[in-house]
Write a structure and sequence with these properties.
This protein is about 35% helix and about 25% strand. The protein has helices at about 1-30, 35-45, 50-90; strands spanning about 95-100, 110-115, 125-130, 135-140, 145-150, 155-160, 170, 180-185, 195-200, 210-215, 225-230, 240-245.
């Protein structure tokens, strides 16, 4: 009798074990293993780092970095404005400081829009300079904005002079920081590094405005000698400019 009871007990445990295994298998199939993941998460939670604290620290670090970058940008703008202020104070005539508010990638080297207009005393034809020298000429004016034709504009023609030798010619815009100067003389006195300024006989700009320096002189000179001129003002990254009073020759 005892042997039969032990036999049934053993078989009952086997049946119970099989049912338990089948039940677990069915549960895993229905939940797609979610129960195991939940169990793992529960058991491993005491050993995991505090994620909320880590996220907070990441956010704080990101904010600190953003503030540091803003300070660098503000410092750079402050330096530019101080330079412009010193330039304005050195001039005998009043100048209008204007921010660059519009510039299209399609005509980056052709024109730009500044945030000053007729309400600020700006007139069509006024010369526009940046840090370093001449950058363009006001072409159109509205009450609070103006369009400036850049010296790098492909249609730009500016009468200029070599400061050292007084050799004259004109500069053609090439759509870049480098332009071409054509001389009126067949054998001009010009050297690399010579300063180029607006000509005293120019009808568009006041004389003596710095424009650039001679970068190179091509060896093969034709009937009209030429020189490569690099603009002294950074035409490609203008943020502030100075508008001069309208000049009459």
């Amino acid at each position: 009798m005892a042997t039969a009871r032990r036999k049934w007990t053993h078989q009952g445990l086997q049946v119970l074990l099989v049912v338990l295994v089948l039940g677990v298998g069915w549960l895993l199939r229905q939940t797609q293993g979610a129960a195991i993941y939940e169990l793992y998460a529960l058991l491993s939670r005491p050993f995991q780092p505090d994620i909320s604290s880590a996220n907070e620290q990441t956010i704080v670090n990101a904010k600190i970095q953003e503030l540091q970058e803003r300070l660098v940008e503000l410092d750079q703008q402050n330096r530019q404005l101080k330079t412009l202020l010193g330039y304005v104070e050195a001039q005998k005539q009043p100048l209008v400081t204007a921010p660059v508010i519009g510039r299209s990638s399609d005509d980056w080297w052709q024109q730009l829009i500044i945030g000053r207009g007729s309400n600020h005393g700006i007139q069509v034809g006024a010369a526009v300079t940046g840090i370093g020298g001449l950058v363009g000429r006001v072409e159109q004016v509205s009450p609070n904005t103006s369009r400036v034709k850049l010296v790098s504009n492909a249609s730009s023609r500016i009468g200029v002079t070599v400061s050292r030798s007084r050799s004259m010619g004109f500069i053609k815009g090439e759509g870049s920081q480098i332009s071409v100067m054509q001389f009126f003389e067949k054998v001009p006195d010009v050297r690399p590094g010579d300063v180029i300024t607006t000509s005293s006989v120019s009808n568009l700009f006041p004389p003596g405005l710095p424009l650039g320096r001679v970068q190179s002189i091509p060896s093969a000179q034709g009937p009209a000698p030429e020189a490569k001129i690099e603009f002294s003002a950074s035409i490609d990254n203008l943020e502030w400019v100075l508008v001069h009073p309208l000049w009459h020759p």
